[in-house]
Input
Amino acid sequence: MGQEVCGAIDSDAATELAATIDIGDSLDDLVAADVDVVVDFTVKDVAAETLEFAAAHGIHAVVGTSGFSDEDIAGFRSLFTRSNALIAPNFAIGAVLMIRMAELAAPHFETAEVIEFHHNNKVDAPSGTATHTAERMAQASAEWADDPTTVQLYEGARGGDGPGGIRVHSVRMVGAVASQEVIFGTTGQTLTIRHDTVDRSSFMPGVLIAVKRVDEFAGLTVGLDTYLGL
Output
C-alpha cells in the first residue's frame, strides 16, 4: 500500500511526493521536508504516533489504518486544532458507497449479516470496513431480530456478535484481496450489497481525494463519505 500511495501521489499533477518514511526513519523528516499532508497506511500503534506528531506540528494527516477504539478517536480529535486529519477504514469509493447503501437499507430489514473476505496476510479480524459498516447499520436501526441459534457444533460458526447484534464473519484466504457482502433479510426477500477489491490501485482515487481535500474539513473526520458528500 505504501508503494501504491507513493506512486499515485508522484504521478498526479496536483500533488508532489515530498518525503517517504519507512521503518527506522524519523518523523522529523516530515518537518525537514516541509510537508503539507502525511499519509499513513501502517499499523495501529505506528499510525497513532504519526497522528500525534502531525497534530503537534500542524501537518494534515490521512490515515488508512484500522483498529482504533472510540477512546483513541476521541483523543485524536482533541489533538487536531492546528491541522486536520482523516481516518478512513476504506478508501475504495465503491466500498464507501456500499457502507452508505447498507446504512440506508438497515431500517427496512429485520435481519442482517456482514461477511468480509481478505488475503491470508491480514492478521486482524474483523476488518475495519466490516466494523464500520456494522456500526453505521446499528446506528441507522436499533430493531434487529434475535439470533435463533441455540446450538453451535463449531464455536464461532455464527460469526462475531457485532454492534446491535449484527453478525460479522471474517474469511482469510490465499488469493483473495478484499471483498465484503452485507446481506439483509425480511419477510419473503433478501438484499445483498457486495463490493470487490481486485487490486490495491482501487484505493488510490480515494486517497488522492483525501490528500487534496483534507485542508477543507476542520479537525478530525472519520470515514471518506464526508469528503464525497455522502
In short: Helices lie at 2-11, 28-32, 44-56, 70-79, 93-105, 128-140, 204-213. The mean pLDDT is 94. The beta strands are 37-40, 60-63, 85-87, 111-118, 160-161, 167-172, 178-186, 189-197, 220-222.
